[in-house]
Structure formats: structure tokens, C-alpha cells
Amino acid sequence: EIVLTQSPGTLSLSPGERGTLSCRASQSVSSTYLAWYQQRPGQAPRLLIYGTSRRATGIPDRFSGSGSGTDFTLTISRLEPEDFAVYYCQQYVASPWTFGQGTKVEIK
Amino acid sequence: QVHLVESGGGVVQSERSLRLSCAASGFNFRISGMHWVRQAPGKGLEWVAVIWADGSKTIYADPVKGRFTISKDNSENTLYLQMNSLRVEDTAVYYCARDQGGAPFDIWGQGTMVTVSS
């Protein structure tokens, strides 16, 4: 099983600031199979990024993804009020599909 | 409009059974693989099960193997999760999600809450 570890657990930032979220895999993951999801309180997760760096339909360009091998990053260039949420990385290269434990981005 | 709508959640005693449904609309359900993902209160996302588009293959997470059964009715555009021998630790919101084959989960339902009491 591929274990994904996200850091930090909580990120306290102000609107307009840049946010950098990390996801580390326990073994190498092909960049084709790494995704990021956003989950706002009381809502279902929403696909943000797939294939490490490809934005899903309708996702604003302030969200970007990068990385390779075991280290991946989600960057939010300028935080908008609606971006304060929990973010999960996921690998979908192999069963069992696994998620990181999540990073909460909260208002400072 | 692409939609997934779960139903069937509720409060059930441990060791009892429950069947969840996920109604799909707005896309070709027949060619879509489907997953169930759950989220315990205040916790992260946990993958539960997957079924191939044609129903030919299923895979389960270890915690539910032998107790849960995923199935899909392509004529009714509906995904199911039969949950038997429920345990308190199965308490969670259950989401269905689409996977177009080796792909991320691009469509999610709103979730249905399952509470298992002892």
C-alpha cells in the first residue's frame, strides 16, 4: 500500500498570501497518477489537480501542482476566501487507492 | 448536468445490514468505473471499494473485505454498496465517485451518513 503523508497538518494564512502544501509518498508514484482534492466544510471533495499538474475543469489558475517521484506540492498563489478548506492528495496508480490525511488551510 | 446522488444511509445497530444506492445522471454510466469512499466524523477520506465499468471486477479495502459488496446496475444507472455485519467503526459519510479508468475521481456525490450504534 502506498502511504501518503501530507504536511503541514494545518496552514494558517491570510487572504492574498501564498500557500504551499506538501504530499510525500512512501514509494515512487508516477506523476500521471497523483491528484489533489479540495473539501470545504459540509461539502463533498472536489477534484482540483490530476496528473500532478493538470487543473480540473473550472479550477482557477491560482492553483498549481508540481512534483515527481515521492514528493509532490500543491501551491495556491493568492488565497481567496473560498480557498480556506481541507486539501487531500491521492494516488490512483494502484489498489488500494489512498489519500493523504489532509492539510487544513485556515484563516490566520 | 452531471450528477451522483447517494441514498440509503441511516442509523443501524452493529452486526446489522444496510444497502446504499448512488443514482447517476448526465454521463455514460455504462463506461464508468465507480468507487465508494467514506469519511468518519472529523477524519480524512478512506477508499472503500471499486467496480469496473462493466461490473467484471471489484476490489475492496481490507477493513470491509468479506462484509461489503459493491455492484452496479447499468440499466438503471445505479451503483450499490451492500454493507453486512456493520461495526461501530463503519460510521461515516459514504460518497460514491466516478473513475473513467485509471483516472482520478472527477465526480462525487453529496454523501450519505451511516451511523452504526452498539
Provide a concise account of the structure shown.
Chain A has 108 residues and is an all-beta fold.
Secondary structure topology:
The complex is a heterodimer of chains A (108) and B (118).
Chain A: E1 4-7, E2 10-13, E3 19-25, E4 34-39, E5 46-50, E6 54-55, E7 63-68, E8 71-76, E9 86-91, E10 98-99, E11 103-107
Parallel strand pairs in A: 2-11
Antiparallel strand pairs in A: 1-3, 3-8, 4-5, 4-9, 5-6, 7-8, 9-10, 9-11
Chain B: E1 3-7, E2 10-13, E3 18-25, E4 33-39, E5 45-51, E6 58-60, E7 68-73, E8 78-83, E9 92-99, E10 105-108, E11 112-117
Key features?
heterodimer, A: 108 residues, mainly beta, seven-stranded mixed β-sheet, four-stranded antiparallel β-sheet, 11 strands, 0% helix, globular, B: 118 residues
Give the strand content of chain A.
over 45%
Distance from first to last alpha carbon of chain B = 40 Å
* Biggest sheet record of chain A: 7 strands, mixed
The largest sheet of chain B is: 7 strands, mixed
Secondary structure: helix percent of chain A: under 10%
Q: Quick one: which chains have the greatest interface?
A: A-B, 22 and 21 residues
Low confidence ranges of chain B: none
Overview of this structure, please?
The complex is a heterodimer of chains A (108) and B (118). Chain A is 0% helix and 49% strand. Chain A is an all-beta fold and 108 residues long. In chain B, 39% of the residues are buried. The mean pLDDT of chain B is 97. Chain A binds chain B through residues 33, 35, 37, 39, 43-47, 50, 56, 88, 90, 92, 95-102, and chain B through 35, 37, 44-47, 50, 59, 61-62, 95, 99, 102-106, 108-111.
